[in-house]
Design brief:
The protein is α+β, with helices and mostly antiparallel strands. The chain contains three helices and eight strands. Strand 2 and strand 3 form a beta hairpin. The radius of gyration is 15 Å and the shape is globular. It starts with about 25 loop residues before the first helix and ends with a strand.
Length: about 180
Amino acid sequence: MITNENIIKDGNEILRKIAEPVSVPITKADLSTGKKMLKYLEYSQDEKKSKKYNLTPGVGLAAPQIAISKRFFAVLCEDNNNELVEFVVYNPEIIAESVQMEYLGGGEGCLSVPGKSGVVLRHKKIKVKGIFYYPLTNELKEDRLTFSGYPSIVFQHEFDHLNGVLFTDKITNNVKDAEQI
């Protein structure tokens, strides 16, 4: 089980490296790690389990954050219609981005940068591709998806981790042309 102790913090050089592509087909080890990352997110969002295991709540977790410099991450959040968005994506690519920008009014935070938050401009809508693991169907398949709103922000935040970028690198006060969500 992944716990807070497994999440490396800002200052660790792994967080600043460009992560390596995941070998295809996806190995059992990488699939298992992805499932454990999703379980961390699930437990961290459950008040009782979060307290029991002393987990910091999160909606995304990238492999580099647990000291694995590979291109994959897990997401567990709700979309604009309160529908669950839950997956692990391997070798993700952002293939298109909207011109319109948005940001979280309360700012973004990060499990690897505890106690800090800030406003980051993100593309309002993104099209992505990668190899997705969907826990609800236990399916692993290459897919192309479009995200907007909160899932788009979460995806871009986690994607940055794969490129050695932290949200603190992108904090801004210039939000006049962006939409707040």
